[in-house]
Amino acid sequence: MSLTREQAAGRIMVALDYPDAASAEALVSSLEGIPCYMKVGMQLYYAAGPGFVKSLKERGYKVFLDLKMHDIPNTVKGGANSITKLGVDVFNVHAAGGVDMMKAAMEGVDAALAADSSLQRPLVIAVTQLTSTSMKVLNEEIGISGSVQDAVVRYAQLTKQAGLGGVVASPQEVELIKAACGDDFQTITPGIRPAGADVNDQTRIMTPRQAIEAGTDYMVIGRPITAAADPRAALQSIIEELI
Ligand SMILES: O=C(O)c1cc(=O)[nH]c(=O)n1[C@@H]1O[C@H](COP(=O)(O)O)[C@@H](O)[C@H]1O
Question: Is 49 annotated among the ligand-binding residues?
């Protein structure tokens, strides 16, 4: 796999896990000119709201809005409708909500697009098993038997059945997901740690290079960039690893 610098940057989603718009803004400014995705998760969204998402879009960024919706179908449909109106490129729900809930998310998207043809269709993806979840936690705490891989593939198949475009999983499961759901089914993988980086609370990890070689479509990377003394240099060194 050989990627240009621009292609490599376009496969990276930087997790803006910050408590307020000003701190997130400082990080975004430090990465200016690098065509990566920006991921807005619940910490930043609950503090800075849709205004921050819109400001990223106005500056030309592709945005992944990571709010991991998991509720009754009617509520998720409404949430997906509102998110689509924000003009984000990617958003997610939890596959654990089941096929009807995921189908409802797609209905919410369709209704928004039918009402306003200027909107773009977002890629809707489902979280399988969180990358912080180990087999021990899955089996002994949550009470799901079998391997994490089995649980992830099952969720990926349900996600595909519901008509979504891909899943969030660990890069360790990408090959199994592609084998079960096809090459076009998108894999978005957090749990990325450059060699020697702090693992933090992640369990199922790979390096950026390993993840790309495993066939991941997009990598979500937070602290290895945001907690670095020089975030721009950290992102550039990850890009170098991928080209
Ligand atoms: O949906 C996600 O983005 C997500 C799913 C998952 O299973 N694991 C996971 O870490 N994430 C997100 O990916 C980012 C990973 O951040 P770092 O661990 O700092 O690289 C965080 O913003 C998480 O919320």
Answer: no
